[in-house]
Amino acid sequence: MRFMRVIVFFDLPTETNEDRRNYRLFRKALIKNGFIMLQESVYCKLITSPSVEQSVKNMIMKNKPPNGLVQMLTVTEKQFSRMEYIVGESKNEVIDNAERLIVL
Q1: Rg (CA), the chain
Q2: Which residue has the higher pLDDT, 34 or 1?
Q3: C-alpha span between 45 and 47 (Å, rounded)
Q4: Whole-number pLDDT of residue 88
């Protein structure tokens, strides 16, 4: 199994009440579908196959806001793990890896 990461970058307007509502709805859709926040307006999700990647893309298209900029990038887990932190450090508040926990 080859693990990959889908990274979603977005820059959405927040000038009107409707803009803020669209921002909240898009962000909630990402979180509901297993994305974690890397930094403000940058979210990522671990995926296991190209078919999962396509379903994630379909979910983003379904929940896209009417205005703003939304970008999606898929990288391998190896590429993602080579990310360098220039300033700051990784926050490990959420366990986000390929291991599975089974409690019987």
Answers
A1: 15
A2: 34
A3: 6
A4: 78
Mean pLDDT of the chain: 88
73, 18, 30, 61 alpha-carbon torsion, rounded to 10°:
-50
Q: How many CB atoms lie within 10 A of CB 95?
A: 8
Residue 31 clears pLDDT 70, i.e. is over it = yes
What the block records as the tokens of 53 is 């990647």
Q: How far apart are the first and last CA of the chain?
A: 25
Q: Which of 95, 86, 104, 89 is nearest to 46 (CA)?
A: 95
Asked whether 52 and 5 are in contact (CB, 8 A), the reply is no
